[in-house]
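Problem: given the chain below (392 residues), write out its structure.
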Amino acid sequence: MPLTPSCTRIAERIQSIPPSGIRRYFDISATMKDVISLGIGEPDFTTPRHILEVGIQALARGETHYTSNSGILELRQALSRKYNALYDVHFDPEDEILITVGGSEALQLTMISLLNPGDEVIVVEPSYVAYKPSVVFAGGVPVVVETYAENNFEVTAEDIEAKITPKTRMIFIGYPNNPTGAVLPRERLMDIARVAEKHDLLVVSDELYDRLIYAGFKQTCFASLPGMKERTILIAGFSKNYAMTGWRVGFIAANPTLLAAIRKTHQYIIMSAPTVGQIAAIEALENGDEAVEEMRQAYDERRQLLVSGLNEVGLKTFEPKGAFYCFPDIRSTGLNSEQFAERLLYEEQVAAIPGTAFGECGEGYVRMAYTSSTNQIAKALERIARFVRRLR
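Solution.
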């Protein structure tokens, strides 16, 4: 008997999730000529040469076999030292750090391992496109807390507490934020920590962009807050800070009980992260600070150019203090987010991402990444100005 052409053979939770709003614009722009991409959140820098060389040498030595499920011990030890130095928080490399295939696997492992069907997760939006799907794929229920430019896209403890129910299992935050570039000051994080403790909740903190901060802001690792290490699942990686997107190396840091469950899931789904990527990541941690700072300064120059340029053409833009994104308000053009992004791409060959890809409260905004050179950003601004003038 032939298979019936029915979508009922596909899991409902998969059907309920739309395709990524980011990838659509990437795919379209890939077919066009002379496109300036402000869309994809990927560094335009090549991985620093000394990190590349370590990876090449590892391949030449034949380092092509599986590693421990937890990842190479030397890498976990280097991470432990780095977090001690940066944030004065200690993670035991033996049983509190797990190396993953990028931050993406880390997100999904966490949700699959720690959620029961029907558990609710507070998700702060606008947020990275994978947050809500990772909850849904694990059988959980995302409960959205919206943030807005008027409040610097900063979530408050009061906003979060208002959404807590008896089914709430965890709070999911990501700062520096993708797509807004917002950051959270320590006092605001302390307020959230008190709410988590009061309601006995876990906190998943995505800190993938922790080294890319500007304007004198000081990053706080959520796990370093008093009493928070035991209830925090820290997710981070090497893709953004070290321009290592293709190496696919991320990590989770959590208390031993939680991490043991997450590691078990990792064992069955992945086994271990890429070996050469892990070896290169050791070099990044031990000798990569200078390169990180050089890239951060370059991003800061681009940030100022793009934000000031967008404001000058009448697209009011909140000043991002982290990551490498800005989130201009395009409502003055009379277009919605999808219309603006699509017309800008087809009419001026500038790729941006509709704000709605990051949550409903992203309507009226688009995400633009300053991961292109200053020359490319200047050209993009000329095209955007021309486009906006036509609309008005």
